[in-house]
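Recap from last week: sequence in, structure out.
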Amino acid sequence: MTTILNFLNHRMRPLFAALLVLLALLLWFSPAEKTLGQAVKLVYLHGALVRSAVVLFLVSLPVNLAALFSPSSMRKNWLCRGKALVWGAIAVWLAHTLFSMVTTYATWGIFIAWSEPRTRFTFTAAGVSLLLVVAAYLIDSPRFSALVFVALAGVVVGLLPQLGLLRHPFDPIATSSSTAIRAFYAAILTDALAMSGLLVVWIRNLLCKQQ
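Predicted structure tokens:
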């Protein structure tokens, strides 16, 4: 693991740039869809961003639980990693929140569909996440920070699948009959996850360089 992290540390910028170029190429060559046309490419990225954020929140749960219950001598090491995961998840979630307005306008003709439960949850979670990060920073208690991060990740991971749908279709890409659409989306999601992982490594380097 240390060898991998050292490699990523020294190759961070070129790797991120290469993944960004690959993402642009995947979106450019990804297939259009009968109903949405080329606008479906925005849906690919929209779905990849939200799933990447949820994955980071999910991975952060055991790490921050370890920070919460570990001895004080080990807590800071766990917390800096848990904090990097949560901060990375929040950054991707904020990108998803902003990009969702572009996707919603391109597909539904409005910027924010407030009547949609997932839309309300997206914006609420974005605002609450920022407030909790500020609170954790101001209080500056490792145990409190770990508790806040566990609660935040638990709410996002636990509630998002339970939200009802009005206009938003249920997983339209996974249920698509087109193999090309599913394959391109899988590649876009993999790329977005890799970029999110690099973001977490970069944040971890900033937070843990003193330790």
